[in-house]
Amino acid sequence: MTRTGANPATHGQDRSLPAALRLESPAFVTRPTMPDLKEYARLLEEIWGSRWLTNQGPFHQRLEQRLGEYLGEDHVSLFCNGTIALLVALQALRINGGQVITTPFTFPATTHVLFWNRIEPVFCDIDPDTMNIDPRQIDGLIGPDTRAILPVHVFGQPCDTEAIQEIATRHGLHVIYDAAHAFGVRWKDRSITAQGDISMLSFHATKLYSSMEGGALACRSAEVKRRIDSLKNFGIADEETVIAPGINGKMIEACAAFGLLHLNMVDEEIRRRRAVAARYTERLTGLPGLNLLPARAGVVENYSYYPIRIRASEFGASRDELHRYLRAGNVVSRKYFYPPANRYPCYAKLPSAAPASLPVSERVAQEILCLPIYGELSLQAVDGVCDIIDWVRRS
Ligand code: T4K
User: Fold this and answer.
1) Pocket of ligand 1, candidates 103, 176, 206: which has the most ligand atoms within 8 Å of its Cβ, to mutate?
2) What sign does the dihedral 308-314-320-326 (CA atoms) show?
3) Which residues are CB-contacts of 309 (< 8 A; sequence separation ≥ 6)?
4) Ligand 1 pocket mutation, candidates 107, 262, 305, criterion most atoms within 8 A of CB
């Protein structure tokens, strides 16, 4: 490899990573924090004893309440996962057709829930700094069929919620946030989930806060929560009334019990991740061709991801090369989110999916790499990851 003027497509193929740089044990992009097994077993015994396994049982009720308190949200509904929660959020607001403006730089679930609701996704380009939907481009995409805006707080970085709300209010549109990455993120002293009509959280095993599988919706009124709760339970309102074509989106008791224990650990997990992130930032700041997410005033972060961006011509290697070398060094970094959703064959023919109209998202998807981050990751392992990055850059 050469540092400047290198051809990112070909260079870097000729050298293997020195064995001394390989981490002894793998560093995954993330690892779940595990509650004490004995404590969990005690809760499982309670579930066994009660024979109440699902359908809004006592653990479900306790978790819903505790989450509401933690987030400062009055109306929280638990789900079996974030994807079904988002699917139901659209149904709850009666958005089941037309168009919704969304970001292509996301996990497949965001776009797929639109398809499953017979909605056409309209892809809007992203902001080069935050990697979130660029509000300056939303107005130009609004048409007679537009029903809502579905932004994502990518990597837990808050969207420009004020600009988005101003546009939505002016056009009479709903805003549903995919806050899958944003548990515990605070913006101007409030949980980020307080923005928009509804926010979705994911509690998947790979998330900062987890119930193994799970998710939640936070909404603004008891009336919307009632509709959400019946939609996630087949549309059942009471024993003899079905109000709408609902689905089965309920969280089971075993997951709610795990979630209750996990909630006791999440602040400590954030604290430990903050130290990991600080070490990466200390080691990687200022490296040519490598961009970090800038810290933003007014944001309390959750450190759910540690994304870096590689500009191949200045860094001296492409993102893909770095990814491969890290893998050779026992470091499981991930290209979240490559390819962007507009490139999936199922969406590529949509009018808004042309890569030429999404230049920032296209570029970011080529540059992005998420480095391992979790509370149990030692600072020694973080140094090991950074040593590999440094070696790739210099070689
Ligand atoms: N919207 C956004 C913006 C999202 O990012 C997601 C999910 C959703 C919506 C949908 O929410 P859910 O319906 O999932 O609640 C993972 C997760 O499966 C997915 O939840 C998440 N986003 C996405 C960003 O990451 P993969 O395919 O990358 O996961 P996987 O299995 O490769 O795991 C990544 C690493 O995590 C592994 O290398 C090791 C570690 N891991 C994973 C699992 C499953 C563990 O240590 N233990 C585990 O049990 O998608």
Assistant:
1) 206
2) negative
3) 290, 291, 319, 364, 367, 368, 369
4) 107
- Smallest CA-to-CA distance from 343 within 151, 99, 108, 137 is with 108
Q: What angle do CA 330, 334, 338 make, to 5 degrees?
A: 150
Asked whether 32 lines ligand 1 (CB < 6 A), one says yes
338: Cβ below 6 Å to ligand 1? no
What are the residues whose beta carbons fall under 8 Å from the beta carbon of 70, sequence distance 6 or more? 263, 266
Sign of the CA dihedral with 72 first, then 255, 37, and 51 last: positive
Q: What is the largest CA-CA distance in the chain?
A: 72
Q: Which residues contact 166 (CB under 8 A, 6 or more apart)?
A: none
Q: Which helix (H) or strand (E) holds 242?
A: strand 241-242
How big is the chain, counted in residues?
395
**Helix residue ranges per DSSP H, the chain:** 37-50, 58-71, 82-92, 108-116, 161-171, 222-231, 253-263, 266-284, 312-315, 319-328, 359-367, 379-394
Tell whether ligand 1 has an atom less than 6 A from the beta carbon of residue 205: yes
- The amino acid sitting at 316 is G
User: Global pTM?
Assistant: 0.96
Q: Is 86 helix (H, G, I), strand (E, B) or coil?
A: helix
Ligand 1 lined by 307 (C-beta under 6 Å):
no
Tokens representing 360 are: 């920032």
Rounded Cα gap, residues 395 and 329, in angstroms: 15
Q: What are the pLDDT digits (tens) for 71-122? A: 999 999 999 999 999 999 999 999 999 999 999 999 999 999 999 999 999 9
Q: Say if CB 6 and CB 317 are below 8 A apart.
A: yes
What are the angstrom distances between the C-alpha of 26 and each of 23, 236, 270, 311, 377? 6, 46, 21, 26, 10
Task: Establish whether residue 278 lines the binding site of ligand 1, counting it when its CB lies within 6 angstroms of any ligand atom.
Answer: no
Q: Is 327 near ligand 1, meaning CB less than 6 Å away? A: no
Question: What is the per-residue pLDDT across 269-323, written as a single tens digit (0 to 9) for each?
Answer: 999 999 999 999 999 999 999 999 988 889 999 999 999 999 999 999 999 999 9
Within 8 A by CB and 6+ apart from 319, the residues are: 309, 310, 312, 335, 366, 367, 368, 369
